[in-house]
Design brief:
Layout: H1 4-25, H2 30-37, H3 43-61, H4 75-89, H5 95-101, H6 107-129
């Protein structure tokens, strides 16, 4: 039987395992991420490419099909902002948490930026854009 506590415990264990793995393979290291985004080192790109290749094989084996839908109006600008923020800060939303846990305190600025960005997205969506409810995580 799935209980709230059991699911929470499983999520905590999975999160700790992921954070440990990310920190130990270097994905939480700002310098490593910077070298990837400035094309000085291809190790992380190859790791990402390997992950994509694995999931493609798994999806093909499981016959997962994505039904094409309407492209959300905020996808392109959101992707540009997300990628730019990742390149500048050295981390997608999960990586700064790993960085802080590893003792890299400047990642707190990145976490604050994520929180401010989400709040600005909500505000701009309500005031100006009126995009569907799938935007600006709740």
């Amino acid at each position: 039987m799935r209980t709230r506590g059991g699911i929470l415990a499983a999520n905590i264990i999975a999160g700790l395992a992921l954070g440990y793995t990310v920190a130990n393979i270097g994905f939480g290291d700002y310098g490593e991420l910077n070298r990837m985004f400035t094309f000085q080192e291809l190790r992380m790109f190859l790791a990402f490419a390997g992950a994509v290749a694995i999931i493609v094989v798994v999806f093909a084996a499981l016959r997962v099909r994505r039904t094409p839908g309407r492209l959300h109006a905020g996808v392109i600008p959101g992707a540009i902002l997300f990628g730019g923020g990742w390149a500048i800060s050295g981390g997608c939303p999960a990586i700064p948490i790993v960085q802080v846990a590893s003792g890299y305190l400047p990642a707190l600025v990145t976490i604050a930026g994520i929180v401010v960005g989400i709040r600005l997205c909500r505000w701009a969506n309500m005031r100006y854009f009126h995009l569907d409810s799938g935007s600006c995580e709740r």
